[in-house]
Amino acid sequence: MGKNRAATIGFASLLLAAGALTATGGSAAGQPAAPEPRNSCDDEGFDWGSDKLYPGEEKYNPEVVDSKLQMWQWHYMREDTYGVLTAGGPHVRFYIEDKKSGQKCWGKKESEEWGEEIETGVLDNRNTSIRGCIVDPDERKCGAWLREDAGGHRQNGTGRGKIDNYPDLHLKAKANYDDHEYPGAGPDVPGTTVKVGNHTKAVMRIRMDEGEAIKTFGFVRTSRKDTEIALVSDKYGFADWMKVDALADGGYAARTGILYNKHDQLMVCVRRISNPSPTHCGNWNRA
C-alpha cells in the first residue's frame, strides 16, 4: 500500500508557483502570467501517514459493481492525493484526474482477480480539482470533483473557481474555514480595514507558521449585536458568516475561521443580520 512507502523527493517539487493577480483576480499589467500547473504523476513519495479522503462519501469514492475506489491523502506541506482500488474482478482499470492540467494518473496495473488492491501514483491537490474514476469492462464511473485551496483545504459548493481555469468567479462557490485551526492572535494586515460608521471596525489578521501556507482570519469589534463578519476569496467565494458575541465591557466581537491565501486573494466583509445589504468589504489582500 502507498501509505507505507518511503522515498526521497527534492524539496523544490513540494512548491507550487502562483501567477500574479490584481485586486479583481485578473492578470496585472507587466507581471508574469501564471505558470503551467505541476504536471506530475509521482510514483514515489514520503512515508505517507495517510488518511482516507472523506471515507463513506460515495460522491468522492465511486463504486462500480463490486469494485471500490478509495481516495487517500498525505498531509504535510503539500496535499498528495492518490487512489486505491479494491477490484471486483479482472480487467478493471482506474485513475485519478487533475482538472487543471488535464492529466490522468492511472492505477499501476489492470486488476487480475477479485479483492486485489491496486493504487495510483500521487497528484498534488492544492489549487486544483481532482477526482477518481473506475473503468470497468462494462461501465465507467467517476467521483465528484474535489477542490482545495493553496493550503490544501477542502472547498465546497457548486460554484466554479478560477483554480479550474474557468474565466469567471461564481460566488455560489463556497470557501470552508479550516475547522482544525484556531485563529488565535496576529498582526493586522495594512490596507484591509473596514469601518462602518463609528460603531464597527473589522480587520484582516494573519498567522504565519514556519513551512506552512499563510493563515488569514478576520476580526471585528462593534457596538451592534446583529453584526456578522466573513472572509471572501477571489477563487472560492464567501466563507461562512460569523456572528459577534458579547464582551464583558458591553461591546461585541468575533473572529472568523482560518483561510489560506498563499495563491489567492482575500478580503474581509461585514454586514448586519437585520439588513444584510449592503455588505461592507475592505480591499483585496494577496499574501
Automatic annotation (TrEMBL):
<feature type="signal peptide">
    <location>
        <begin position="1"/>
        <end position="28"/>
    </location>
</feature>
<feature type="region of interest" description="Disordered">
    <location>
        <begin position="25"/>
        <end position="47"/>
    </location>
</feature>
<keyword id="KW-0732">Signal</keyword>
<protein>
    <recommendedName>
        <fullName>Secreted protein</fullName>
    </recommendedName>
</protein>
